[in-house]
Amino acid sequence: MFLRILAAALVVLVLLPDGVRAQATTIHDGPLSERRVSYTMEVSLDPDRRAVSGRQRLTWRNPDSVPVDELQFHLYLNAFKPGSTFQEESGGVHRGFSSQDDDRWGGITVQRMRIASDLPADLAGSLAYPGPEVDITDRIRFIQPDDDNADDETVIAVSLPRAVEPGETIALDIDFESIMPRIIARTGFDEDSDGRPFFFVGQWFPKIGVYEVPGQRYVPADASRGAWNTHQFHSNSEFYADYGTYDVTLRVPESFVVGASGVRVEESSDGSSQVLRYRADDVHDFAWTAYEGYLVFEDQWEHVAIRLLLRPEHADQVARHFDAAKFGLDRFTAWVGEYPYTTLTLVDGLGGSNGMEYPTLITCGTYYRMPGWLRAPEMVTVHEFGHQYFYGLLGSNEFEEAWLDEGMNSYVESRVMDDAYGPGAMMSLPGLPIGDRDMQRLSYTKDDPSRGALFTWSWKYRFGDYGKASYAKPATIMNALEGYLGWERMRTFLRTYYERWRFRHPTTRDLQDVAEDVAGEDLDWFFDQYVYGTAVLDYAIDSIGNTEVADPSGADSVDWYRSRIRVERVYDGTFPVTIRARFADGSTEDVRWDGVSRWEEFTFTKPVRLEEAYIDPDDILWVETDRLNNRRTLAPSDAFAGRERRKFTTRFQQILYVIQALF
Ligand SMILES: [Zn+2]
After folding, report:
1. Long-range Cβ pairs for the range 120-123 (8 Å, 24+)
2. What's the CA-to-centroid distance between 634 and ligand 1, angstroms?
3. 387 alpha carbon – ligand 1 mean position (Å)
4. How many A from CA of 383 to the centre of ligand 1?
5. What's the gap in Å between 356 CA and the centre of ligand 1?
6. By the 8 A CB rule, do 341 and 26 touch?
7. What is the pLDDT of residue 335?
């Protein structure tokens, strides 16, 4: 024991000369993003009051070509006050987690906001407010850009006494106090079974909105000025913020184990409190957690230091978490692009804090004695890691186009899981391997698959459609697009999308442009039906048959047949498809069908009978809702096998429904 303490002390001496660890936040020297914002925060955690309070120095550079005289901020924690739009929409229940405790409420108060006059030297050239600092606290007003709920306090607007000129930077000093709610929507406090306090601190500080300039996202390029894109906190919506730098100093009681976004660059202690300083660059958020109970494990993947904060009851699942994280790093790097950050923190939090992404920090989630054949913790780890790309590095607007994050991420997650763990990637029960793509497809098809277009603002879905339309459906249609383009071109699409749009907030239209560039063809037929529309695809074999005909050569030495396959389009969706005909001598012939007409008949004249027809024989049309009607055979033995197969498939789907309900 003593030796271990000594060794640990030596490590600290080596790694922390003067209490500073020399680790860069990314593997690049210069900025990776535009860095319109910077946050320097010094805050303290008071566990008894569940309060995080302190000061923020925020800088914001006006990216527009005209002066901007109003700033808008998110105060997300106010979603957890009575009467908020989040409470109205959710009834206080978020993804199955809720609390009725009296102490469940949280909120954030901006105590004072001042325009600073002491910008650092490197920003001095664009100092917007030279001279004495100006108190603008009484200029703060709550606004509700999405609804008329006057009780919603999740967005504020602040009019400025003088506009920020184009290219100028304004610095604000903001004193604030955040009261953490009992965990809801992946943030807050809780107690473990021993009564020890647990904190997951997300969406916790005043965060400036994204000011979109002309030509950015959906602001017309010829607009006279840009606009703030701020939305209230909704039950079904995540986040949108600008890239910048974070320098965050946390004062936390000594007994807590702390994990945070970015790199820990300084640490000190006065015996009762520890002071931890973190830096994160080219990110758009910062989250942290504090809990006495965490076990800490460390691992390395190439340039990434992986740190796992695990609850003690899950100590036997260390390798499962690290393996999944490394599979994620490996496949996402190869298929999408570089992970430029030097750290990744995996957090096994309490209850409703799990299954969430923040820059370089993700919450995973598992259960005591999670069986090895059920790869839920692996899937969540891969999924939340994947968000480092679609949420983190690309920075989609999750309020308006959630599918660009959740859906694209669920697609790649399903590919990573199936590639890393094989056919039973989600469940590997003997004789019943279930892959991640199977699960995604099932959640898309199991209820009315026509409900919910992907391109819908997240709080405008009919209740319950958000999950399907933002996760399972986009994953499934992307798997179908992969079937259409082929895996090589699909990877080129993912890589090009990442390279062209990282740190730049792409839209659905931008994604389609990349897909069309890579495909070398117009893909309106795909996007109009499955992204903007609610088309449902199902093809069926209506009938097959043979008629004896005369030998076309006139020789009449063998019997000739005119064979037909009649196929039907069942719903409104179309998708180019292959139909395979198999003849009695074992030979096959493929025909292509665009699926546009309601039904179509394909005929063959051959000296051999048609025995079987199969729509989509390579099983690449993942988006098709019913695959049991894709095959028809005239051979009795095969027909029997087909019936058995169908019975098995039906049972299999029923089992899947049950399992699906668990997630
Ligand atoms: Zn997600």
Report:
1. 123/59, 123/169, 123/171
2. 46
3. 7
4. 6
5. 7
6. yes
7. 98
How much is the pLDDT for 352?
86
| Total Cβ atoms within 10 A of residue 381 | 30
Distance 406 CA to ligand 1 centre (A): 5
Write out the two tokens for 574: 């179309």
Q: Which residues of the chain, if any, have pLDDT below 70?
A: 1-22, 121, 124-125, 636-663
Ligand 1 centroid, distance to 419 Cα (angstroms): 19
94 Cα–ligand 1 center, Å: 14
Instruction: State how far the Cα of 494 lies from the Cα of 415, in Å rounded to an integer.
Output: 12
pLDDT score, position 663:
44
Question: Measured in angstroms, how far is the CA atom of residue 400 from the centroid of ligand 1?
Answer: 15
- Contact in structure between 536 and 571 (CB atoms under 8 Å): yes
C-alpha 227 – ligand 1 centre gap (Å): 28
For helices 436-445 and 636-662, what crossing angle results, to 10°?
90
Using the mean position of ligand 1's atoms as its centre, give its distance from the Cα of residue 235 in Å. 15
Ligand 1 centroid to Cα of residue 23, in Å, is 29
Cα 328 to ligand 1 centre (Å)? 14
Gap from CA of 381 to ligand 1 centroid (Å): 10
Q: Are 638 and 612 in contact (CB under 8 A)?
A: yes
pLDDT of residue 3: 37
The C-alpha atoms of residue 586 and residue 305 are separated, in whole angstroms, by 56
Measured between alpha carbons, how far is 25 from 246 in angstroms, rounded to an integer? 10
413 CA to centre of ligand 1 in angstroms:
10
SS3 of 115-163: ECCCCCHHHHHHECCCCCCEECHHHEEECCCCCCCCCCCCEEEEEEEEE
Q: What is the DSSP string of 546-559?
A: EEEE--TTS--SS-
Distance 403 CA to ligand 1 centre (A): 10
230 alpha carbon to ligand 1 midpoint, in Å? 21
The number of beta carbons lying within 10 Å of the beta carbon of residue 655 is: 14
- DSSP label at residue 104: G
Type of residue at 659: I
Closest C-alpha to 44, from 258, 209, 190, 191: 258
Ordered by where they begin, the domains of the chain are 34-186+209-241 (no CATH), 402-530 (1.10.390.10), 539-633 (2.60.40)
Q: How far is the CA of 306 from the centre of ligand 1 (A)?
A: 20
Q: How far is the CA of 54 from the centre of ligand 1 (A)?
A: 30
Question: Are β-strands 37-46 and 343-347 bridged in parallel, bridged antiparallel, or unpaired?
Answer: unpaired
> What is the crossing angle of helices 473-485 and 487-501, to 10°?
120
Torsion angle (degrees, nearest 10) of CA 87, 92, 94, 97? 160
